């Protein structure tokens, strides 16, 4: 280890080497998702470059991931369609849950720009992708019988309410308030996924399955060009 004198008594001060801080769970997952998508493009028939990737290819990628899904999606012909708690198993397929896809696209959209992509050409932010995700959300909500609720707007803070109340009281009582003195006061047009699931989706397990699939079958023949 290199050492330098600190100038007072000949003591030695160690020169510490810079160590990269460990990635957060979100950053680690984003990196794995990005590498998985790049591998998907490489295995595409014919292979796709990132520059040629469009919103349609992103939608195709999400449909491809359904084979790794853990969420039971009831079809219209299923007896349990719209049933929030089915009493028995059925033969409906397993797919990716809307929440998992929505989070995935958010991470890939950020990763695209972090790797040099321009925001205006980001395929993960394409209108077709947003429409597709909305259709998946609505169809899964109907299949589960449990609608997704929109986030409620936050009410005004107590301080703001109190200030407004004081101003109203002052005005009604004929008092003049001198302002100089003091006072107070964050999908596809042509694709539709039916039905939603009732089982729990495990994102980490899904990712492990996807990565294993890509490495075990580098020349996946099921990927077709749009």
UniProtKB/TrEMBL annotation:
Molecular function (GO) terms for this protein are:
DNA binding
Can you say where in the cell this protein is located? Nucleus
Does this entry carry the keyword Transcription regulation? yes
Keywords (alphabetical) are: Developmental protein, DNA-binding, Nucleus, Transcription, Transcription regulation
What positions does the domain ALOG occupy?
25-152
Q: Which Pfam families did the record assign?
A: ALOG_dom
Coarse class of the protein's main subcellular location = nucleus
Disordered: region residues: 142-203
Entry GO terms, CC = nucleus
Amino acid composition bias (Low complexity), ranges on this chain: 157-178
Question: What's one GO BP annotation on this UniProt entry?
Answer: mRNA transcription
Family note: Belongs to the plant homeotic and developmental regulators ALOG protein family.
Q: What protein name is recorded for this chain?
A: ALOG domain-containing protein
Please give the organism: Papaver nudicaule
Please spell out the taxonomic lineage of the organism that makes this protein: Eukaryota, Viridiplantae, Streptophyta, Embryophyta, Tracheophyta
């Amino acid at each position: 280890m290199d050492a330098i004198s600190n100038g007072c008594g000949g003591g030695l001060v160690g020169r510490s080497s810079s160590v990269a801080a460990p990635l957060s769970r979100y950053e680690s997952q984003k990196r794995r998702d990005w590498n998985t998508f790049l591998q998907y493009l490489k295995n595409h028939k014919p292979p796709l470059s990132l520059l040629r990737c469009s919103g349609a290819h992103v939608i195709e990628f999400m449909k491809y991931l359904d084979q790794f899904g853990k969420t039971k999606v009831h079809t219209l012909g299923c007896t349990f369609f719209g049933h929030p708690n089915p009493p028995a198993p059925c033969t409906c397929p397993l797919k990716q849950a809307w929440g998992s896809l929505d989070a995935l696209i958010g991470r890939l959209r950020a990763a695209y720009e972090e790797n040099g992509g321009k925001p205006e050409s980001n395929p993960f932010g394409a209108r077709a992708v947003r429409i597709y995700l909305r259709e998946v959300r609505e169809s899964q909500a109907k299949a589960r019988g449990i609608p997704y609720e929109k986030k409620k707007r936050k009410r005004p803070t107590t301080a703001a309410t109190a200030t407004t109340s004081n101003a109203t009281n002052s005005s009604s009582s004929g008092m003049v308030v001198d302002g100089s003195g003091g006072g107070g006061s964050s999908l596809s047009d042509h694709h539709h996924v039916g039905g939603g699931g009732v089982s729990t989706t495990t994102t980490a397990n899904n990712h492990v399955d996807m990565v294993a699939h890509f490495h075990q079958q580098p020349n996946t023949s099921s990927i077709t060009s749009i």
